[in-house]
Amino acid sequence: MKLKTIQPVFICFMISVLIIVLLFPMEGGFPYIEGNELWTTLRQLGLVCGIFLLAGGLIVCFFFHFYYLRKNLFFKKKDLFFSFLMMMIFIVPTEIGISYKLFSVYMIPYAIIPIVVRNFFDSRTAQITHLITVLICSLVIPSPWEFVMMQIFVCMVTIYVLRDLTQRWQLIVCSFYILLTYISAYSGILLLQNGDFSKWDWNMPVYFGINFLLVMCAYPFINIMERIFGYISNVTLIELSDINLPVLRQLSEKAAGTFQHSLQVSMLGTAAAVKVGANPQLIRTGALYHDIGKIENPLYFVENRLAGPDPHEDLDLPESARIITRHVPDGVRIAEKYSIPQTIIRFIKTHHGKGKAKYFYNSFINRFPGEPVDESAFTYSGENPDTKETAILMMADSVEAASRSLTDYSEDSLRNLIDKIINSQIADGLLENAPLTFKNIREIKQVFLERLLSVYHLRITYPEVK
């Protein structure tokens, strides 16, 4: 374990255990023990030590899950703190409610934990976060077995029903399923314990109804967590991909060729993402925004010129290259102006990486052989991609742009072009930080080939009437 990570893990562990112990109900009797005569100083100390060991053990298991199964999350302090915060948000109200008898724990919407965590991470992490939270809460609940049983059922149903939250109505449907699960589980527990419904508590359906209403508040809660931690959900990605948004509408009006290019890159990247297990919706949205910097100087990019003189003719090669490479910082500035999330801005920064404007760079070398080259004038000021999604977008962007310069769209010519572009990026070290295997690269190349062949398919010539 890295030393830099031990410190935040230890701090989270100590804070969480201290909160649990400090909120431990010391007055009014512990749920498992009757009679205040048992509350001697020694017994109080023993009970505190017991809950410290049990709660501490559960939190250690929680961190082990991250360390052994989710290393990509474990070594990010932000992700650890988010998971710790999700647990505390529900543990603290549970202990306050039990200690001071303010409300029933069945009013607390524990199902929000798997909904939110699944939205940002994965199902397994959502399940373990919910399970550890529920087990810690059960240490101070009068009927822990019934509580844990119902919450496990609710978690499973939530994970299965809400596999991919993309629209608001899905959350409403999931809330109804959660309500039915609570009622069914409560009925089953009563039948198991008594054989009938003679001890039915009519307050429980009311508690479940309040829980149902609170679960529907998960949507604004997700938005709050996105803004605090810089995450991005599929719902937000779909909202950002609306081409009627001001910045995308501006791109389509001022730089129509770039907008069409972005749509094609989106198509290529999405198909490749599905193939290699990346996030297709993230790439689709990132592709729509990756070239918004070209809004500033649209006519300097060939895809936006229909006719007329080339504005680069009056410029020297380094100056032309600076204008071209400037669309990356311009894009970042425009995205920040429109409050685009950093996750999407990351695609703008990385879609050229630290590569060069090859057309002007190669032209300069050919025109002035032997002269020293100021490489900074031809080099993009971005960052190399470090995720599957940003790496796929870089490849899709270059391949799609280069494919428009071909005169022969046969399978061999397209395959050679794709190999040449991607192999050049690998040789230049632009993809060295991307978590892609050679198998992934091969699969991405094949997907690009199939998609480009479908775009540049053969068409028949319609005969004229003679």
Write up what this structure looks like.
The protein is mainly alpha-helical and 466 residues long. The chain is built from 21 helices and no strands. The N and C termini lie far apart (80 Å).
Helix content: 55-70%
| Helix/strand/pairing category | mainly alpha
Order of helices and strands: HHHHHHHHHHHHHHHHHHHHH
When the domains are counted, the total is 2
Strand content: under 5%
The helix tally amounts to 21
Please state the overall shape, judged from the principal axes of the Cα atoms.
elongated
Q: Radius of gyration, rounded?
A: 29 Å
Question: Mean pLDDT across all residues, rounded?
Answer: 85
Query: Regions with pLDDT < 50 over 5+ consecutive residues?
Result: 26-36
* Major pleated sheet: none
Number of DSSP strands? 0
First-last Cα distance: 80 Å
How would the blueprint of this fold be written?
Blueprint: H1 3-22, H2 41-69, H3 71-74, H4 77-100, H5 112-120, H6 123-138, H7 144-161, H8 168-194, H9 203-215, H10 218-229, H11 234-240, H12 246-254, H13 256-276, H14 280-289, H15 317-325, H16 327-337, H17 342-350, H18 358-367, H19 388-403, H20 411-427, H21 438-455
Question: How would you summarize what this structure contains?
Answer:
The protein is an all-alpha fold and 466 residues long.
Key traits:
21 helices, mainly alpha, 66% helix, Hypothetical protein af1432, elongated, 466 residues
